[in-house]
Design a protein that fits this description.
The complex is a heterodimer of chains A (92) and B (317).
Chain A: H1 2-13, H2 17-20, H3 27-33, H4 40-58, H5 73-91
Helix pairs in contact in A: 1-4
Chain B: E1 3-7, E2 10-14, H1 29-33, H2 40-53, H3 58-63, H4 72-85, H5 88-106, H6 111-144, H7 152-158, H8 167-191, H9 195-224, H10 230-241, H11 282-297, H12 304-315
Antiparallel strand pairs in B: 1-2
Classes of the chains: A mainly alpha (92), B mainly alpha (317).
């Protein structure tokens, strides 16, 4: 699952996975580095597309909480996975 | 109306230049420019008529305020409003510049979108002028009632220009900003005793609603053109209405330090006498945002959850 989320997210952002999920990379850094992004609305849309892809593949809809722009990407990934597990349990 | 007068042997026909119909915002701008064949001269004339019909004097309005009757809460509301209104000039300056650039970008590929952009950029001069009334009225009043002066550094900080974005997203954000301001000023009217100050807040709130209507009209025209997608209007609405979203303004646990510009709703401050006053009225703002979305996109939602679901469906996989 983690690998799937990383791949989808990297695809939508337009950055390589290893650059995207480094410890010192925050949401603000991603907006700055991605040629596809202007501001946090693009970030929101990337989360939505990743979540939609997950729903299509696994039937679970993940709703992410509002995250500050200084949140590191590994932390974002953890929250995404926790939300996925929570929603999956709730749906079961 | 045509007036005819007999001057000796010559019959003079006098045609008044003024129109008969009351001025109004063109709510279906795309249809007006395409099916009804209005030109930019026609559209600008309508903007001018409405602008003139809504003019008011800051000097007259302030003369009607009884300074000695204002409570500490009244003065705080005025002070916050004055600071917030400082951010509208860079908003209008930017809209004028970006709309003109977009107008030229679309000129060859879609002349109707180009005309919508030009109509929007042209109207920004009225918006800018009307907002100047708000800013100067509140800041002068704050000064006269001995509120903390606004240092030049703060003035210049609040004048920073918001970075450019997609035009539909920009217009939706501006519509929500006007909704937020109008509702806040409406809430202020509820707690103000002085009739002169109440009238000022009422007038400014009415202006903000008129601005909201213009932004909705331009945004709807862009969606109607088929060149802009409803999802982008929904994205901005979701940004504001989601949990811990922008609509909560400075009452959020964490407000982003943007560095590039000031969002006025992030910088409202609570002061003495304001403990029992909460201007948020989130429910009312939410309903107005849903109403704007329906007018712009034709899609109706009734709750934050429905808004999020619809936006995610529009985004796709």
């Amino acid at each position: 699952m983690e690998s799937y989320i990383r791949q989808r997210f990297a695809e939508y952002v337009g950055l390589p996975e290893e650059q995207l999920f480094a410890d010192d990379v925050t949401l603000a850094t991603v907006i700055g580095r991605s040629a596809k992004m202007t501001n946090s609305i693009d970030l929101m849309e990337t989360f939505a597309r990743t979540s939609n892809a997950l729903r299509k593949e696994h039937g679970v809809r993940v709703r992410l909480p509002t995250l500050p722009l200084d949140t590191p990407m590994p932390r974002v990934l953890t929250i995404f996975l926790e939300e996925f597990d929570r929603q999956k349990r709730a749906a079961a | 109306m045509t007036v005819e007068a007999d001057h000796g042997t010559v019959l003079v026909t006098q045609r008044p230049a003024g129109p008969d119909a009351p001025p109004a915002i063109i709510t279906d701008l795309f249809g007006a420019l395409t099916r009804h064949g209005l030109s930019l001269v026609d559209v600008t004339w309508e903007q001018q008529r409405l602008h003139e019909s809504r003019r008011w004097s800051v000097l007259d309005m302030l003369a009607a305020v009884d300074l000695d009757r204002l409570t500490p809460l009244d003065r705080t509301l005025v002070w916050n409003a004055g600071r917030a209104e400082l951010t509208t000039k860079p908003g209008a300056d930017r809209l004028e510049r970006q709309a003109d650039a977009e107008c030229r970008r679309w000129q060859d590929s879609n002349p109707t979108v180009s005309a919508i952009m030009q109509a929007c950029g042209t109207w920004s001069r009225y918006w800018n002028e009307e907002e100047a009334h708000h800013e100067t009225a509140f800041n002068r009043l704050a000064q006269l009632t001995g509120m903390a002066p606004i240092p030049d550094e703060t003035f210049i900080e609040f004048r920073q220009v918001f970075p450019d974005d997609d035009m539909l997203r920009t217009l939706m954000l501006l519509a929500i900003s006007e909704i937020t301001a109008a509702v806040n000023y409406g809430q202020c009217q509820q707690v103000i005793d002085d009739p002169g100050l109440r009238r000022l807040f009422k007038q400014v709130a009415a202006d903000e609603i008129q601005h909201r209507n213009y932004f909705v009209s331009f945004a709807k025209a862009l969606v109607d053109s088929g060149e802009y997608q409803a999802k982008d209007a929904f994205a901005v609405a979701h940004l504001f209405l989601r949990e811990d979203g922008e609509i909560l303004g400075s009452s959020r646990d964490q407000v982003e330090n943007r560095g590039t510009h000031v969002n006025w709703w992030d910088r409202l401050e609570r002061k003495a006498g304001e403990d029992d006053f909460r201007p948020e009225a989130v429910e009312k703002k939410q309903q107005l945002v849903f109403g704007a979305l329906k007018k712009i996109t034709g899609i109706e939602v009734h709750s934050r959850e429905e808004l999020e679901d619809t936006w995610m469906d529009l985004v796709g996989g």
